[in-house]
Amino acid sequence: MDTFHSLSRKASFISLLLSLHLLCAIHSAAFNVETVTFNKGFSHLFGEGNTIRSADDKTVQLHLNQYTGSGFKSSDLYNYGFFSAKIKLPAEYTAGIVVAFYMTNGDVFQKTHDELDFEFLGNIRGKRWRFQTNMYGNGSTSRGREERYYLWFDPSKEFHRYSILWTTNIILFYIDDVPIREIVRNDAMGADFPSKPMGLYATIWDASDWATSGGKYKVNYKYAPFVAQFTDLALHGCPADPLQEVVNSDCAAREDGQLASDDYASITPKQRNAMKRFRGKYMYYSYCYDTIRYPVPPSECVVDLAIRQRFKDTGRLKFDEKHHRHFKKRGEVMNTRNNRNQENV
Ligand SMILES: *[C@@H]1O[C@H](CO)[C@@H](O)[C@H](O)[C@H]1NC(C)=O
């Protein structure tokens, strides 16, 4: 037993050393992604006056000021596909701000909606942005499947590509070409796996009441406007009419072929290693390790023993490492608009 533990400690130390190196090596390579102009693929959602498009219509700035946030959405809904944008987040003091990049069909299916999210949570000066991913299927909002992470870079310095691959069997969240989360469909999930047409959305908004340390730090409009930039948007999927359940079959065949050949459609062993390392090092919450909420992890969870060691039985991070201490002191609350039951963590 002891030998096993010291071996595994050694192994995790070595993998820690390797992880930074690997993440850097890997994320320098970029996907080859066909992009679309705003006018071709998108329309305004809210705060139109706070949406500023570049002359070539490939870049959109979403502003948040004391009057309103802003947002846009894809003009069509899609049944499966690859959805992506390069995003640069606001710098400086960003407490209380949320930038979201997500897919949903909530306005069509109010009670049975599907959703896949990236949500970036602003922070006080000097503290890192954090982000979370989530999935809902067929209105399963009581089963939050959220994970929360730190980034391995400063997202306000440069553009990075954030992508969602959504097929009939797999969901992959990517940052640049590092897959950070994979959900493989299984029968036990039933309709919890999103399967109705969804649109792609991007928003910036004031979430002062929960985004940073459970609402302790509000948006400070002295630093307004807060600007999130989106560029090189990709919408690879077949437009679908949500009420007809018919997908243009020519398009579907073409997209299937395209998805099969694109470099984001399958993960190389190297990428799988990078995913494992990202999750081992930067993930600080996952519902799959939260035994208070889920005494038995939901069926899609693939429990990684090395990751489980980092969490207490409660699924909360162990704070026994020196560099984690200040997070504990801050009493961080990782709350989301969909997950208020986490409020008193
Ligand atoms: C989705 O949810 C609705 C309402 O709860 C239910 O009637 C329906 O059967 C579900 N769909 C599937 C495919 O399970």
Automatic annotation (TrEMBL):
Signal peptide range equals: 1-30
Matches recorded under PROSITE patterns: GH16_2
The GH16 domain extends over 7-230
- Gene Ontology biological process: cell wall biogenesis; cell wall organization; xyloglucan metabolic process
Q: Where in the cell is it found?
A: Secreted, Cell wall; Secreted, Extracellular space, Apoplast
Which EC class does it fall in?
Answer: transferase
One Gene Ontology CC term in the entry: apoplast
Q: Entry's SUPFAM superfamilies?
A: Concanavalin A-like lectins/glucanases (SSF49899)
Matching entries from Gene3D superfamilies are given as: 2.60.120.200
Q: Which domain of life is it from?
A: Eukaryota
Give this protein's Gene Ontology molecular function annotations: hydrolase activity, hydrolyzing O-glycosyl compounds; xyloglucan:xyloglucosyl transferase activity
Alphabetically sorted, this entry's keywords are: Apoplast, Cell wall, Cell wall biogenesis/degradation, Disulfide bond, Glycosidase, Hydrolase, Secreted, Signal, Transferase
Active site, renumbered: E115, E119
One Pfam family hit: Glyco_hydro_16
Give the EC number(s) under which this enzyme is classified: 2.4.1.207
Q: How is it modified after translation?
A: Contains at least one intrachain disulfide bond essential for its enzymatic activity.
What family does the entry list?
Belongs to the glycosyl hydrolase 16 family.
Q: What does this protein do?
A: Catalyzes xyloglucan endohydrolysis (XEH) and/or endotransglycosylation (XET). Cleaves and religates xyloglucan polymers, an essential constituent of the primary cell wall, and thereby participates in cell wall construction of growing tissues.
**Stated name of the protein:** Xyloglucan endotransglucosylase/hydrolase
Give the organism the record lists. Answer: Olea europaea subsp. europaea
